[in-house]
Amino acid sequence: MKLSALFENVPDIEIKSLMADSRTKRPDSIFFCVKGIMSDGHNFVDQAIANGARAIVYSEPLDHMRDDIVYIKVKDVTAAFNAVADAFYGYPSHDLLMFGVTGTNGKSSISCIIRDIMNEIEPTGYIGTISIEYGNVKLPPLLTTPNIDDLHGILRDMVDAGMKACALEASSIGIEQGRVDAIDFDVAVFTNLTHDHLDYHGTMEKYFLAKKKLFDHLKPDAIAITNVDDPYGMRIVEDCPARVITYGVNHKADYQVTKYQLLADKTRITLKIGDMEYEIETNLVAKLNVYNLVAAIAACHVKGISIEMMLPQIRHLKQIEGRMERIDEGQPFNIIVDFAHTPDGIEQVCQFASAITPKGKRIIAITGSAGKRDTEKRPQFGEILDRYTDMIILTEDDPRDEDPIEIAHEIASGIKKTNYIIIEDRYDAIRQAVELADPNDTIIILGKGDEKFIYREFGREPYEGDDAIAREVLHKYYFTQEEEENEEK
Question: Residue 229 and residue 475: Cα distance in Å, rounded?
Fold first, then answer.
């Protein structure tokens, strides 16, 4: 694409790529001097040029300028980056039915449910914490909400692959940093707002306001879907230019759950929409998934998918990897793997575990807390687990350059009565829980879900995922031991 097609009064040179990271080689590119959390792109212009930048988009004074480079001064580099990326990739979000999902908990689940329901009607992609998926393509996740260039590039690939819709997780940090400013959302969903990311936002109010930007910037013919049961649910759509639709359980809503029954392997829901009531059965479990499912149903329904058409699909939704995932390899006890890494998320998993664990049987919890992230949550984790569980194993969870043992002790400061042990290695912690479990006990493994990496002192290292390790440990240790005991008899 010609630079002159992207900016006025510039030379007619060929641009082959966009660059925001000066360390990445991008021949014949435009470098955008974006100001990040830790660094300012204005300080890395020379490196960007060495790696192929032919044009520099900037807003602050630069030390020196070269005659063979085009310099384009703008008021807002991020705004310019959004506009250019959208145009460079051919406005891909305008060619897709775009669903954006934001909130503390439930983004991945709702986005994946939307993708699965919509896929029965027309090809639909997904971008989020779990993966990037469209058609037969499944890629590892980048950020929950990818950076501007990556995001528009992925959407372009989806359009070229024949996708007609996309469900995108919109994180508060991604929204705050302007990564979705140029995305043409048709539907935006709010899940809930609880304690998280305060190391970045500072206060709950600033965290809320970051989320609210998604709804403030919707086009008038878009639809905003919000959880009326959440204290922030109606505040987030104040002054929203789009049509507002509500869902909930405890309050009157456009999509209201009037009854629900939680079972160990399925959930039954009575959903009232206007004057109609629908009896719904799903393989998803736990109350949190009642909300997630209804939000996804509302999002698809407002775009013309009938409830009757959804019902067969809802009964047998794909297991969302690492999200309230039941590990069933034939063992006589429950294992639940969940990505829960907030106080509210952990409490919801604990409540479900309490509901499915017979009286007199134990709940064994495994958790940690991320290093260099929102340290105020740690004692809260301990307090919640102390109320619901019978045995706690504290372990590593993305410790970065913090000592996992010290993090564990901070969590333990909230534990007053429940027995706990600290096992630094996460694999060994899961193994210990499996070896401790008796028939009808419940093990809950919290924090990592299906993530295939773990952040340690020197960066991101490979990790099998809690779901994969749970299965491996069961076969390698539990069933092997059981077979040996039977042979001895």
Answer: 42
